[in-house]
Amino acid sequence: MKQSFEQTQDELAVKNFSRRNFFQMAGGLAGAGMLFAACSKSSDTTGPTSFTLTNNDTGILNYAYALEQLEAAFYIQVIATPYSGMSGGEKTLLTAVRDHEVAHREFFKAALSSSAIGSLTVDFSIIDFTSRTSVLSTAMAFEDLGVSAYNGAGPLFQSPTYLGLAGKIVSVEARHAAYLRDLVTPNSFATNADGYGLDFSKPPSVVLMTASKYLKTKVTSLLP
Amino acid sequence: MNFNNILNAIAEQDPEVFEKVSERRDVIKNFTRKVSLVALPFAVGSLFNKAYGKSTDIIIDTLNFALTLEILEAAFYNQGLASSSLAIPASDRPAFVTISTHENAHVAFLTNTINSLSGTPVSLASFTIDLTAGGAFADVLSNYSTFLAVSQTFEDTGVRAYKGQAANLMGNSAILGAALQIHSVEARHAAHIREIRALAGASVSPWITGNQSGITGAAGTAVQPSYNGEDNTTQAGVNIATIKSGAVALNANSASEAFDEPLDKAAVVAIVTPFIH
Fold it and tell me: Which residue of A has its CA nearest to B162?
């Protein structure tokens, strides 16, 4: 079954992308649904407590979906319970960031369809949502993490279409990151770049270790 | 950038890379300890070329295209910072020093990488630079508002250009990775320039809304090709603008903001040719 899935994916990777192809691929995966099911410890009524990211393009897309779930949940909370002293301008732009992250999350959910991992349960107990400093420093860390994650995952894609889609998102995350860095420390929008003028890049294993601090759901990864 | 990681990343994709570049694996494995930091792009690239030869042609072409854009950007910021008639506020100058440093570093990085692939990098001397674009931005080096408008356009265009070329670099994951790391830095630059313009009263956010530049008048018309197509709200068949979830209801504006759009090479060449030819 694994072999036939990989063949399906290879065939799809060379076709021009369309939603139909995406769902064909999803259908192929549904047949191999045990890839996920076998790894899910869904023993209670609240749904799976763990998910496994497969080492292929679907796994990378689910990796992105997981990170977008985390970011969206964070900003939904930020706007629902604004920190004290949130300016009108900050509220407007942080609401926009929330909407972008929800857009990313819902995009991956729809595009992955039956191949999507389920909803993650977040753990924001270490964040003080009443504190501007706590919220903005966490937001900045999430955005920088997101940029590093997409940059690190991009070269892992087999499909140029998925690379292109991830590219459309990562630059928006970088815009968020720049904005939040400037809120925390003026003019720090890109001072994280190295001596070659290159941004952060981290492999999934490193990113997930950081992300796990904010997740109750265990995300296991077979990605590098 | 960590070149040990790059070599290891290549080795994961191609376990024989060490054998391809040297019969003495230990020499390669100790490679990065013995080469100075500045020389690394060249030296690592030499390894790539030795291992993969002619398959690098499309990559060299793509890197030279990127290098052309970086040369233009570097020239723009270098001249802007040096212009005695351009009143960059003291509070904004550090940001332009940061951006200028990055663009010049990108020029050096891409030049070294192309050299190390046995390609011939383009250089500033190969081009005529006209930052006024034939007069469309006649006061670009004396009017801070114009300078900001051109800066925003260069950065937003650069983001779109790298995005459009990513697939051409898939043959070399290390170089693709580095290009992605440049791409997101350009997006950070764009966001900051947009913040500066917003503070000065322009109708812009750190991200791109619809196909709007937030640049008015003749300059706005001149830069519009850099923003056409950014108003796309359908991604991989998913209509983003109609998404509703809890308290969040997306619309055409937020849907377009959430995804930046690529530009193909021809469109980018048409945009930058008035500035660099």
Answer: A167
For the stretch B188-204, what's the b/e string if a residue is b when 16 or more beta carbons lie within 10 angstroms of its beta carbon? bbbbbbbbbbbeeebeb
The correct CATH number of A2-7+19-221 out of 3.40.462.10, 3.90.550.10, 3.60.120.10, 1.20.1260.10 is 1.20.1260.10
Print burial letters for B233-249: b (CB count within 10 Å at least 16), e (below 16). bebbebebbebeeeebe
Instruction: Identify residue B211 by its one-letter amino acid code.
Output: N
ipTM over 0.95: no
- Closest chain B residue to the Cα of A188, Cα to Cα: B95
Residue B184: list chain A partners with CB under 8 A. 147, 150-151, 170-171, 173-174, 199
Taking 70 as the threshold, does the pLDDT of residue B9 lie above it? no
How many angstroms separate the Cα of B213 from the Cα of each of B194, B235, B264? 10, 21, 19
Q: How confident is the model over A11-29, as pLDDT tens digits? A: 333 333 333 333 333 333 3
- Where residue B56 falls among pLDDT bands split at 50, 70, 90? confident
Q: Encode pLDDT of A126-168 as tens digits.
A: 999 999 999 999 999 999 999 999 999 999 999 999 999 999 9
* Domains of chain B, each with CATH number or no CATH: 55-227+262-272 (1.20.1260)
